[in-house]
Amino acid sequence: MTVTSLQRPFIVVSLLPRLLNTNGDAGNARVLAQRIRWSGHDAQVVDVHSRADLPEHVDAVSIGSGTDAALLPARDALRTLVEELRVWSNSGVPILAVGTGWELLSWGIDLADGSVLEGLGLVAGQAVPRATRATDDIIVASKYGRLIGFENHARDYVGAEASPLGRVVYGSGNGDRASGPRIEGLTMGEVFCTHLHGPVLARNPGLADHLLRAAFSRHGLEYSRGARAGSVDATALAARNQVAVRLGQSAE
Amino acid sequence: MLARWRKPGGGSAIPGVVVNRIAPGFLATTLNGFPLGLVIVTGSSGKSTTTKMLVAVLRAHGLSVFTNQSTANISQGLTSALLERVGLSGQIAGDVAVLEMDEGHGALIAESLTPRVVALTNVMVDQIDRFHDSEMVAVLLAKIAARATETVVLNADDRYLADLGSSLDATVRVARYGVTAEVLGQYPRGLGYADTAASRLSAGTGLQLTRAVGRDADVQFPTGGHSIRLPARGIHYAVDAVTALSTAQATLGERFDPTIACTALSAMPAVFGRGEVVTVGGKTIEFVLVQNPSSFQLNVDSLEAGTEQILVIIGSDVRDPSYFWPVDTSGLSHVLIASGLKAHDIALQLAYDNVAVDRVEPDVPTALDAFLALPDPASGVKTIIFSADGMRRTRAHLGLVSNAEES
After folding, report:
1. Nearest residue to B231 via CA among B57, B400, B393
2. Is the ipTM above a cut-off of 0.85?
């Protein structure tokens, strides 16, 4: 018998939205939940500030980016959830981590004053200081489509060379490399890490729908994009094309 | 920068450049030399409104006030403006100087200034491009506050400012103001501060905002309560008014009269672009200016229920479309047109917040014409929510007085 629905709402967890939401990246949880609803299923966003907030079921996870002042409290809060994060990432629960949220999942963060903030060690690599803050639009060629967003970070990322999210067409991404193409982001299974902050999933529904297919397939369900999502994605395409054309790229 | 100084109404900054070269100490010496001294208003948000309110209150008390029109021309432009006021005797006419300062500018220029009173409005997470962290903003504000010779007026509901107040030199008086727990309770999302202080002012320890509904607000003074009519709707204007009143009290001392102050505040004309109501071609329109995520959220939350005709214009000044994503726009329910250079981006956000968007029209004049052509709404007034760039384009297209100095 084919399964056609989940007997409960899909649960999208927004991790530490008070500490990690400088650019509205926590909105990515909202984006996933809306797209699930538009596909005809029930969905709910659960804000998790500490272990006490953890829901029984977790179908997708969003971690945003915060200020450097929030790095230590955010790392300490994430540490209390490290076992869950390990279980989710090993069992194919899609996880999106943006900016400092990504850096905290890494081996560690080399801070500008020479000290190192140890990360959770869930994904390979580490964040290292860069000469000047990267603040600009960014365009990435990826297998989830051409991703367009905004980056604003004071650190590069090294150690993601084996499995980047994509290749930088415009912008800084993970930073300069001695050789090879410039890359952006990191993927590990269904864990997606990126510098594209803010509503990366709204602007790039190709990536959002990949995460949703992963979330659905864990339950033997097939995700299909709803009609409402279709018209909203046309708006996202117009927004992306505007940036692409301004930066000398072709419209899609 | 020159282009900015040449905007209509901005005056010429050239004499200022010349004087600053010939007599580099002129600006500081003059500003420090007013009989009632210098008052500086600074903070993340609300300083422009607060400054205008403060000036109105001081003038109502019979003072002659020297003030700046904006923070944009802070050094050279100020010198030019001061020169216009120098009499034949070489003296500047005026009792007191009131300056609005940008936190960045302020920390630089404040080195040479000795303000009698420094007023701090709040620390908000905004202006991401310039000041990445609220901590950094707090440090800049602390530098300005440290220059105060007599009183630092501060918002006790803002955790960063409350902390700053307790670390100031003991020779400086701290005048605290804030809202009551009841007022704060009406805003479950808070008042937009980067961090809200854990507790409210206890009664009698500073000016308190005890009520804010629409354009009406009540303020509790040590001598009793007074009501004021705000120049625009919204809790942030009410807090700005309390900031201005508290600063006026610090500046005037014994001469401060709450009745004169509240009457002067209530008589102020609506602030440009912020809850300003205009009539164009017989149609009434309310303007709502959103400058940062906090003011966007507060404006959405305080919009008249049932407003059925809304135009949103987000322009090129919003460099990063992520900027407004922390805002929950769902309260708008239905937007007729999304416009401006970032029309697609704001339409996308509205869509994910379940707000119906009928039309996306990046060209501002086209959007305005279509919006104005609609018959008057059955409920609420035609409402235009815009960024500063959207406001400029709107005013230009509708032939309204330009307001280049508002920032």
Report:
1. B57
2. yes
Binding residues of A: 133
Question: What are the tens digits of pLDDT across the range B170-181?
Answer: 899 999 999 999
Q: Give the active site residue among A41, A153, A197, A210.
A: A197
pLDDT at residue B1, rounded to an integer: 32
Contact A203 B321 (CB under 8 A): yes
Q: What percent of chain B has pLDDT over 70?
A: 82
**CATH homologous superfamily of B274-398:** Mur ligase, C-terminal domain (3.90.190.20)
Nearest to B326 among A24, A68, A242 (CB): A24
| B280, pLDDT greater than 60 | yes
Q: How far is CA B179 from the centre of its chain?
A: 18
Residue A154: its chain B contacts at CB < 8 A?
132
- pLDDT score recorded for residue B272: 57
Closest chain B CA to residue A205: B348
The ranges assigned to domains in chain A are 10-226
* Chain B interface mutation, best of A19, A22, A36, A232, highest count of B Cβ atoms under 10 Å: A22
Size of interface A-B (CB pairs under 8 A): 82
The CA distance from A150 to the nearest CA of chain B, in Å, is 7
Tell me which chain B residues have a C-beta less than 8 angstroms from the C-beta of A29.
none
Mean pLDDT score of chain A:
94
Q: Is A51 exposed, middle or buried (0-12, 13-18, 19+ CB in 10 A)?
A: exposed
Query: CB pairs under 8 A, 24+ apart, for B397-403?
Result: B397/B364, B397/B365, B397/B368, B398/B278, B398/B280, B398/B368, B400/B278, B400/B280, B402/B7, B402/B8, B402/B9, B403/B272, B403/B273
Domain range list for chain B? 2-266, 274-398
Angle B258-266/B235-252 helices, nearest 10 degrees? 140
DSSP letters spanning B310-367: EEEE--TT--SGGGGTTS--GGG-EEEEEESTTHHHHHHHHHHTT-EEEEEE--HHHH
Binding residues of A for substrate: 133
Q: What is the mean pLDDT of chain B?
A: 84
Task: Round to whole Å and give the CA distance between A67 and B295.
Answer: 20
Interatomic CA distance for residues A211 and A195, integer angstroms: 17
B357, closest residue in chain A (CA to CA): A232
Per-residue pLDDT band at A98 (split at 50, 70, 90):
very high
Q: Indicate whether A246 pLDDT > 70.
A: yes
Calculate how close chain A gets to B129, using CA atoms only, in Å: 8
Is residue B39's pLDDT more than 80? yes
Q: Which CATH number fits domain B2-266: 3.40.50.300, 3.40.1190.10, 3.40.50.2300, 3.90.105.10?
A: 3.40.1190.10
Which pLDDT band holds residue A102 (cuts at 50, 70, 90)? very high
Domain A10-226 has CATH 3.90.550.10: no
Chain B positions with Cβ closer than 8 Å to A: 125, 128-129, 132-135, 293, 320-327, 344-345, 347-349, 351-354, 360
pLDDT of residue B15: 54
A219 in active site? no
Q: Quick one: closest CA in A to B322, which residue?
A: A198
Chain A positions touching B356 (Cβ under 8 A) are: none
Residue A149: its chain B contacts at CB < 8 A?
Answer: 322
List, for residues A72-92, the tens digit of each pLDDT value. 999 999 999 999 999 999 999
Q: What is the pLDDT of residue B107?
A: 65
